[in-house]
Specification:
This protein is an alpha/beta fold. It has two domains: 6-102 and 109-241, Type I PLP-dependent aspartate aminotransferase-like (Major domain) (Aspartate Aminotransferase, domain 2), CATH 3.40.640; 245-374, Aspartate Aminotransferase, domain 1 (Alpha-Beta Complex), CATH 3.90.1150.10. It is 41% helix and 13% strand. It contains twelve helices and 13 strands. It has helices at residues 6-12, 14-27, 34-47, 58-68, 86-93, 138-148, 200-210, 231-241, 244-266, 293-302, 331-339, 351-374; strands spanning 51-55, 76-79, 97-100, 123-127, 151-155, 163-164, 167-168, 175-179, 193-197, 214-216, 219-220, 286-289, 340-343. Helix 4 (58-68) packs parallel to helix 5. The radius of gyration is 21 Å and the shape is globular. Mean pLDDT is 96; it is low at 369-375.
Length: 375
């Protein structure tokens, strides 16, 4: 069993993907070819944002967003400690200080109730992460930011295609950033990412920053980066877009299947990351909390079931970032890091495979239940 079945996805769209790649090989415009503008138009229309700017990775998208906002040394940016390292990495690369605010235990997303207490005169922005495929509490976060005059950047690397109160992820705040890393719900065959905004000035700035700060050829009006998304990667995403909404539905179907199977087989031991009723998830990962995780992982591995941990060490406890940890730490994130477990997920996960995972997980958890009874 594959943790993420990219082979089946390719086979389902092979002719279209191959044709898109061949078109790029035929015209030879490997940098900023016509597929770049075409993809940007398609993605902007999909999200409802006025502008989409494709870039070389999700990490680069975050960095470009911060640079476009004028984030500089001495500034603070509030974010979550429970995410992939890129979220905080971009803040530090921009010269700013990451301020870690704990997460909500049910959703694993930034806890909006804790943000206000961490705002200081140096705070310039908030970066909530839409973890595991589900948007954070964006309305509440936007209100808090608005009162303090802060920008909100949604890190939607895992949630592209999800909805929140009727709007698409990446169009929920001043700037949205996503990733097209191959394992993402909408992925390319290498690195890629995109920025979204309806602010014309920010869009112009981000377009310049991604090409070394150029306003026109060899005229550099800003400090920039080499952040363009390759034409070939744009071609792959264009091909995958044709089935993307169907794939979102299939991911949600697979998650619902897991929910039903685990509820039946695990009962009170079933502790999934909550998906709230006012939003949808694209299930970049299907994640639950388990006790004695290593033992459970070992048992699943023995049964041929791959697993992953997103994430085993919170960012504020990473060696390179620990000196930015708050005095009280982030106890919820620390607890989650010991218990979260992600299971195989994707649009091509069928019911027999889900059944196999459910049976193996129930068997893996049985010893802990027996031990609890004996105690």
């Amino acid at each position: 069993m594959e943790f993420i079945d990219l082979k089946s996805q390719y086979l389902a769209s092979r002719e279209l993907i191959n044709a898109r790649i061949q078109a790029v090989l035929d015209h030879g415009q490997y940098i900023m070819g016509p597929e770049v503008a075409e993809l940007e138009g398609r993605l902007a229309a999909f999200t409802g944002a006025r502008h989409c700017i494709t870039v070389s990775s999700g990490t680069e998208a975050l960095l470009i967003a911060l640079l476009a906002l004028g984030i500089k040394p001495g500034d603070e940016v509030i974010t979550t400690p429970f995410s992939f390292i890129a979220t905080a990495e971009a803040i530090v690369l921009a010269g700013a200080t990451p301020v870690f605010v704990d997460v909500d235990a049910a959703t694993c997303n930034l806890d909006h109730r804790l943000i206000a207490a961490s705002i200081t005169p140096r705070t310039r922005a908030i970066i909530p992460v839409s973890l595991y495929g589900q948007p954070a509490d964006m309305d509440e976060i936007n209100v808090i930011a608005g009162r303090a005059g802060l920008a909100v950047i949604e890190d939607a690397a895992q949630s592209f295609g999800a909805t929140y109160r009727g709007s698409r992820s990446c169009n929920l705040s001043r700037i949205g950033c996503t990733s097209f890393f191959p394992s993402k719900p909408l992925g390319c065959y290498g690195d890629g990412g995109a920025l979204f905004t309806s602010d014309d000035g920010l869009a112009a700035a981000m377009r310049e920053i991604r090409v070394h700060g150029q306003s026109r050829r060899y005229v550099h009006t800003r400090i920039g980066v080499g952040g363009r998304m390759d034409t070939l990667q744009c071609a792959v995403v264009l091909a995958k877009l044709e089935r993307f909404e169907w794939e979102i539905e299939q991911r949600q179907r697979a998650a619902a299947c897991y929910d039903a199977l685990f509820s039946a087989s695990l009962g009170e031991r079933f502790d999934p990351v909550a998906c709230l009723p006012d939003r949808t998830s694209v299930y970049a990962q299907y994640t639950l909390r388990v006790a004695q995780r290593q033992r459970v992982q070992d048992a699943l591995h023995a049964a041929g079931i791959p697993t992953a941990v997103h994430y085993p060490v919170p960012i504020d406890r990473q060696p390179a970032y620990a000196h930015w940890a708050s005095t009280g730490g982030c106890p919820v994130a620390a607890s989650l890091a010991q218990e979260v477990l992600s299971l195989p997920m994707g649009p091509y996960l069928d019911r027999p495979a889900a059944n196999r995972v459910a049976m193996a997980l129930a068997e893996a958890l049985a010893p802990s239940l027996d031990g609890a009874r004996a105690a």
